[in-house]
Specification:
With 819 residues, this protein is an alpha/beta fold. 74% of the residues lie in helices and 8% in strands.
């Protein structure tokens, strides 16, 4: 199918114009605003009665097509069956490339529609869409990205909410049962507590009487104790009279003296330890000072030896060593250069011998060739003579012409040989000249190398003499001995530096030790004075202690304090007994108590659990009140819950069973639909793989050709287009604008070919804007090949592109004058 003719009347810039097209490649050439895009919009308008361009046109468009069978039709009167299955969006995505709009519109949706049309899988997508409507966000488990809830999920959620409500009601009824049971248990507990309270009240009365009896007995006992206190007071007053000499003032003074004695004694011990320690430290430091002074004398002696040793190497220095090393390296370099030159000289001598032999051989061959050349020339002369004689004799005897033929043959035979020998002779002469020239060159090189070797030998001898002189001046045999002596000098200098640092450090240590010894001696003298003062104070304290003890008639401080402590204890006992002494007469009180105790003769002195009876009674009373209140509260809660539920328990349980069954059925249904959707996904994957197999190979070959092999091809993945480079997959966003346009164009060509086989045409409105000239030529080559299977209308403003395509294309030129 191809477009044959287009007639425009008052359409855009065209008032009345007819365009004729041919099968294959058609070039529409013209500058901007010449009407190239208008022609394409007119073709699209003829097919679909509308266009995707933002421009708005009026006027009339007529379009004639030639069908694959050869029939010519007008699109306005008869629409081809093939175009009925192609909508405007598909047409724009495959068959029409607008300027700067080579990418697919709604890429993912378009590729799905393309798969449906190419592989007849519209039923699969319809089933998939129905499942999406039902399952929605449940498809996330299969990797799908849907946010809608889905009809089945909504039904499940509604059923789940109803199920939760019924389960809540069921739990309410269970709670009511539990509350009723608890109320009955509380009623039984209240009855038991009322019985327990009556028993405790009776026991409380008996406990009160027992308590009164114990009180009377306790009072009687106190009266007996009061009589005993009077007797004890008299005994204590007698003991205190014997301890009157022991006073608090003497005790306080003794304590202070004892503390002072202890402190002075500890101070004396501490001062003794400090003085001994300082004395030991002084002795140690003096010994260490002697050691350091001996060590310094040893270092001084070693330093003097090293100075004497260093003088032996004073004339060795690093500059001369480096100079010797440089001379040695230069000598080694010259020796290597001499060896290389000698090797080269040997090679030149061998080449000279070979050239001499070649020259001798060539001269010999030249002599033989010259001899043969002279013989051939004589034979040619002989043939000429025979020819001349035969021609002269033919005037008289015609048969002599046979001799002329023989003469001509003889001349031709020996003349050809003579010519060959002359060529050989020239070749040998050139070869001899070449050999002589080569011999001269080789002799020149030989002389140069011999001079160079002599120069190397002279320089090596000079360097050797210089090295020997430098070594003799310092008294060494060779450079190795010089370096060893220099190394020894460096080692001695480092050792001297180390010894100087060590001596400096020893001087500092000796000075520090002397200062420390002086300070320690001063401290020792101060401590000795403190020891003497402490001893005098200790003796004075001991004399005062003895004086106080003699006054009270005891021999030790501990005895004094024991007696004083006993006196204090007796005074405290006396005071305590005086406080306990009653103001009443104990004998009269005891008589009254005996009469009262006779009334509680039958009451027991002690009742088991009496101390807990009152507390237990209060607890029972409190629990009884709490239980009564709790029973009332439970009855109110049960009544309120029954009113709120509004359904019987049997109705709730029956409805709960039905909803649970329905909920499980919906979950099973959703799981089954998920499995079905998974199967559909697998089918779609296989369909996509089949489509990729159809499209990718041809499109990849074109794309690789256009990019000169920079990319291996293209691929379709997850509804998007990618470029392949080895194992790397590149998205269109990572490509340059030109490469991206070429990728989409290759994909469009493959899709167009697969969609309609040979029943299609392509409209290309300046598709090469982002391409350089080289890639444009490659794209043009692809389009030329492609135009053998379909019609291509290519619009361009580039004159060089028109010139390149004019030999194989139908060119339609537009100018602003045609508008």
């Amino acid at each position: 199918m191809w477009i044959k003719r287009l007639v425009l009347k008052n359409f855009g810039v065209f008032t009345d114009h007819t365009f004729s097209f041919k099968p294959g490649l058609n070039i529409i050439y013209g500058p901007n605003e010449a009407g190239k895009s208008t022609i394409f919009d007119a073709i699209e308008s003829a097919f679909f009665r509308r266009i995707k361009s933002k421009r708005r046109y009026k006027g009339e468009v007529k379009l004639w097509l030639v069908l694959p069978e050869g029939e010519e039709i007008e699109v306005k009167k008869q629409r081809p069956a093939w175009l009925k299955t192609v909508d405007l969006e598909l047409f724009e995505n495959i068959y029409f490339v607008r300027t700067g709009e080579i990418e697919f519109v709604k890429e993912t949706q378009f590729l799905e529609n393309l798969k449906a049309k190419l592989l007849n899988v519209s039923g699969l997508y319809e089933a998939k869409n129905r499942l999406v409507s039902a399952l929605g966000k449940s498809l996330k488990s299969l990797g799908e990205r849907y946010t809608r809830a889905g009809e089945l999920n909504q039904e499940l959620e509604a059923t789940e909410r109803m199920l939760k409500e019924l389960q809540t009601k069921k739990e309410e009824y269970l709670e009511i049962r539990h509350l009723e049971k608890k109320r009955q248990e509380l009623e039984e507990e209240r009855k038991r507590l009322e019985e327990e309270r009556a028993i405790l009240v009776q026991k409380q009365k008996l406990i009160t009487q027992s308590h009164q009896k114990r009180t009377l007995l306790e009072r009687y006992k106190q009266c007996q104790q009061a009589l005993q206190v009077k007797q004890d007071i008299i005994a204590l007053e007698q003991k205190l009279a014997s301890l009157a000499a022991f006073t608090e003032e003497d005790g306080t003074r003794l304590e202070k003296l004892q503390e002072e004695q202890k402190s002075l004694h500890q101070e004396a011990i501490y001062l003794e330890q400090q003085s001994n320690e300082i004395k030991n430290q002084l002795e140690d430091k003096k010994e260490r000072l002697k050691t350091l002074e001996q060590e310094k004398r040893a270092y001084d002696l070693e330093q003097e030896k090293k100075f004497l040793h260093a003088k032996q190497y004073a004339q060795f220095n690093q500059e001369d060593a480096q100079k010797l090393l440089n001379l040695t390296e230069k000598k080694t370099y010259l020796a290597d250069a001499k060896e290389k030159a000698a090797t080269k000289l040997k090679t030149y001598k061998q080449q000279l011998t070979t050239l001499t032999e070649s020259l001798t051989q060539a001269e010999t061959q030249l002599a033989h060739t010259q001899k043969a050349y002279k013989g051939c020339r004589w034979q040619v002369g002989l043939g000429g003579s025979l020819l001349l004689i035969s021609l002269v004799a033919a005037f008289w005897q015609p048969w002599t012409l046979v001799g002329a033929g023989i003469g001509i043959g003889w001349m031709i035979l020996w003349g050809y040989k003579w010519k060959r020998l002359k060529q050989t002779l020239n070749r040998y002469q050139k070869e001899i000249e070449h050999c002589k020239l080569q011999l001269e060159l080789e002799n020149t090189h030989l002389n140069t190398l011999e001079q160079e070797i002599e120069k190397y030998i002279s320089e090596i001898e000079n360097i050797t003499q210089t090295i020997n002189q430098m070594c003799q001046q310092v008294g060494v045999v060779d450079i190795a001995a010089y370096q060893a002596a220099l190394k020894e000098k460096t080692s001695i200098e480092k050792e001297l530096q180390r010894l100087g640092q060590q001596l400096e450090m020893l001087d500092k240590q000796i000075l520090a030790f002397k200062e420390e010894i002086k300070v320690e001696e001063e401290r020792y003298q101060i401590l000795r004075a403190k020891q003497k003062t402490c001893a005098n104070k200790l003796k004075a304290v001991e004399r005062e202690i003895v004086q106080i003890l003699n006054q009270v008639g005891v021999s030790a401080i501990s005895i004094f304090f024991n007696q004083l402590e006993e006196k204090k204890h007796l005074q405290a006992q006396l005071k305590a007994l005086e406080n306990r002494l009653p103001s009443f007469d104990p004998k009269e009180e005891m008589a009254v108590l005996e009469r009262k105790l006779a009334q509680f003769k039958d009451v027991p002195d002690k009742i088991a659990g009496a101390d807990k009876t009152e507390t237990t009674l209060e607890e029972v009373q409190s629990r009884l009140e709490n239980i009564t209140n709790e029973i009332g509260t439970l009855q109110g809660i049960i009544k309120e819950k029954l009113q709120t539920l509004g359904q019987s328990e049997a109705e709730v349980l029956n409805q709960l069973y039905q909803v649970e069954t329905a909920y499980e059925a919906l979950k099973t249904e959703r799981q089954e639909w998920l499995l079905v959707y998974k199967v559909l996904l697998e089918m779609e994957r296989r369909v996509e793989k089949q489509l990729l197999h159809i499209l990718e190979k041809q499109a990849s070959d074109w794309f690789s050709f256009i990019t000169q092999g920079q990319y291996d091809g293209l691929s379709f993945q997850d509804g998007h287009l990618f470029a392949r480079k080895g194992k790397e997959i590149c998205g269109v966003e990572a490509l340059s604008t030109g490469t991206k346009d070429q990728l989409y164009l290759a994909a469009r060509l493959a899709m167009a070919q697969e969609m309609a086989k040979n029943r299609f045409f392509l409209l290309l409105d300046d598709p090469f804007l982002t391409c350089d000239k080289e890639r444009t030529m490659r794209l043009l080559a692809v389009l030329k090949e492609f135009s053998q299977r379909c019609q291509i209308l290519l619009a361009t403003k580039d004159e060089w592109l028109k010139e390149q395509a004019s030999k194989e294309a139908n060119v339609i030129e537009l100018t602003p004058l045609t508008q």
